[in-house]
Every structure is written in structure tokens, then in C-alpha cells.
Amino acid sequence: MDVSGLVWAGTLVALTAVLLVDLLIIGRRPHEPSVRESSLWVAFYVGLALLFGAGVWLTSGASAAGQFYTGWLTEYSLSVDNLFVFVIIMARFGVPRQYQQKVLLVGIVLALVMRGGFIAAGAALISQFSWVFYIFGAFLIYTAVNLARQGEPDEDEFSENLLIRWSRKALPISKDYDGAKLTTHSAGRRLFTPMLIVMIAIGTTDLIFALDSIPAIFGITQEPYLVFTANVFALMGLRQLYFLLGGLLDRLIYLSYGLAVVLGFIGVKLVLEALADNNLPFINGGEHVGWAPHIPIWLSLLVILGTLLIATVASLMKSARDRRRELAEARR
Description:
Elements: H1 5-28, H2 35-60, H3 62-92, H4 100-128, H5 132-150, H6 162-170, E1 183-186, E2 189-192, H7 194-218, H8 224-235, H9 238-245, H10 248-251, H11 255-276, H12 297-331
Antiparallel strand pairs: 1-2
């Protein structure tokens, strides 16, 4: 794609405007959105992504549009997985429901900033060193194996990282929340509220997920414009999706396994592309590996969409069976 500076600027302005609208809504009235409100916002953001992909199709062709849709779907799925950890953090720290929107929005903004930095760094590395695909591919395969072994985390398995433990010990933290404020006054002293610890937990979680998501999207497309927009659209509407799904998140018990398959597939795809463009002297004498197949974007989209669909349907069927079994046992 030949994306001009004017197109980049226009895209950034438009996406920033959408984000500012979200900020103004929360800043004006912190609340727990209803199912109807959440549904409308999620539908709006998904429709916006589909419309943007159609625009890419018209201006740059089907291949570029396919790359955007595949990247967006992958990043959106990883963002949903991110919600599992957000749910655990909210429950662990007892964040009042009416203030969870603000926490989620801060988490999304932090994720955008971190992913933007990683995208720039990743694009620079790829342009200079094609062998970085070996590292990205190996990292995704390693992540996929770990995800398949561990499954989705639960509250009992959540452990506070070093930064959170240090903050608890080093900073004066109040016992109670003061709305959504990060600081409060108590007995003439200025204290940090537990909301600060929650923000630190959300930020470190975003960092971990950014490390997974950026290699995944570069395994689908190396076009910086598509990488960036796919990530932004995948994060838009995430806070509304959090409230819309609600208890449904607990029922997606096989999502982690589906994501493990997706990440493993993209990792293998990256390694194959690295082999096809190989210039490392200790691999095949520095020559390209002719047998390494190229996986077309339509096949990647089919595999990713099919895997996520199977994981979702299997999760809902398993949850329904478990619920019927529990009801039958309760009647005995």
C-alpha cells in the first residue's frame, strides 16, 4: 500500500475524535451502561471496522482488505481474552461497577499507546532485519503452548506482580475508594486510593498483551497502516463489550484454546515466511528455503475465523450442558 501522509493524518484525526467522544461520555456521567447502550456502541464500532475495511477494499484492493479484516479479527479476539484479566482485576480489587468504565477506558488508552510504540519498533526491525520473523514466530508458538497449558486464569490464580507489590508497600494507600479519584484526603493527609493500584494492574496487563498482539498482527500483514488501524479498531468498544458480555465471559471456557491455535498458526506462518526469505548463513547456507509454502491471506482468515467460531460454539455448548446438569442435581 502507498499510504500518503495526508491519509495517515486524516485517519489519526478521525480515530482520535471517536476516542474523545468516548472520553467525554464517561467524564460527563460515570455509570454502568445498560445492555441496550452497550449493544448499540459495540454494533457501531464493529460496523465502523467493517466499513473501514470496505474502504480499504475500494482504494487498495481485496488483498489489503483481507489483511485488515484478518488482523482486526485476530486482535479483537485477543482483546476479548484481555477482558478475562480485566474481570479478575476488577473483582480482586473490588472496583465499584459505576467506576469500572473509567478503569476500562484508561486501560484502552494505555493499550493504544503501548501498541503504537511496539508497532513503530516492530516495523523498524522488520524493514532492517527480515530474520526478526524467526523471533516473532518462535515467541508466538511459545505463547500458544503456554496458553493451551494454562487456559483462562481465574481469580485464585491471579498473583500481584512486583510493581503492584512495591506500590502497596511504598505508597500511602487509603482503605476505601473515593469515587474514581486516584488521591484522597484523610486526617489531613493526602493518600492514594486503591484506584491507583488498579490502574497499575491494568497497565502492566496491557503491556503483556501488547507483547503478544504485535507479533501476531505482523504475522498477517507488514503494512504499518493496516497494523495500526486493525489494533485501534480492535480496542474500540472494548469497554462496552465488557458490560455487554457480562457473565458470558465465564462461559467462553475454550476461548483460550482457540486463541492458542490461532497464535500457533500465525507463529508457524511467520517461521515459514522467514524461511522463504532466509538470509541467515547458518540456515540452509544463507539461501532461501524453496519448500517453505506461502500461506495466502484468504486461508489465514478462514483458519482464524473457523477456529474462533468452533471454540465459541463448543464453549457455549459445554456451559449449557453443565448448567443443565447442575439444575438436574439441584432438583434431586
